[in-house]
Amino acid sequence: MQAISRAKPNFFQQPTFASFKEERLHRQQRLAAAFRLFARFGFDEGIAGHITVRDPEHPEQFWVNPLGKHFGLMRVSDLILVNQQGEVIAGDRPVNTAAFAIHSQIHAARPDVVAAAHAHSIYGKSWASLGRLLDPLTQDACAFYQDHSLFDDYTGVVLEVAEGKRIAQTLGKNKAIILKNHGLLTVGHSVDEAAWWFITMERSCQAQLLAQAAGQPQLIKPESATIAHQQVGGHDLGWFSFQPLYELIVHQEPDLLS
Question: Cβ contacts of residue 12 below 8 Å, gap of 6+?
C-alpha cells in the first residue's frame, strides 16, 4: 500500500510539494478517492463519467479513469495518463472517447483548471433536461450564483474535439456548466475542489427539484446571493469542503491508495 501524501501537516492549508513525483502521487490519490466517493453518492451509471487532473510535470497531459473501470473499485494504480492526441501513455486500458473530447478542450481553454469532473448523476441530468440555470434558493446553491453556464445544444454523445471546444467556450471562466439533456460538469484548481463542486451542485439540483415540486420557492435576493457566493464559492473553501470526505473514504477504503 502506498502511503498517503502529506507534504504539509496543517489540515486547513492546501499542501505544497518538494517534487513533481510527490505532487503527482498526491493528485492521483485525490483522484482515486474522488471516484470512490462518486460511487458512494451514486454517480456511477454504466461507463459514463470521468474526472481528470493535470499531470504536475507535464500539464498538457492528464490523468483520468480508464474506460469500463467501476468508480467504486478505482485505485491509484488503475489511473491512466493521456496526452494531447488522446493517446494513453501510462496505463494499460483505453480512455473514454468522450472524456478526451470534453476534458482535453477544457484543460486547453482554461490554464487555471487543474481538474474537471463530469458524471451522469440522477438529479443533475434531471435538472439539465429543463434547460435552465440553477436559482439561488439556498446558501449552498449560491456557490454557483453567476458562476455557472448552460450548454443549450445537445447533439448526442460528445465524441468530437470540436464539440468539446464548444462546451469549453460556453463554460467560460465559470466553475460549472449544465449540459442540457446530459448532466453537470465542474472544474477546480484541484481534484478536491472540482469533486466537491460536483457533489454540492448535484445536491443543489436535488434541492431545487424538491422545492419546485412542493410549491413556489423563494429566491435569495441578488445582493445577498452575491455575498453568499463570495463566502461559500471560493477555491479554498471548495478544496477544504472535500477534506472530511477524503479522510472518511481513505479510512474506510484504504486500498484505493494502492
Answer: 240
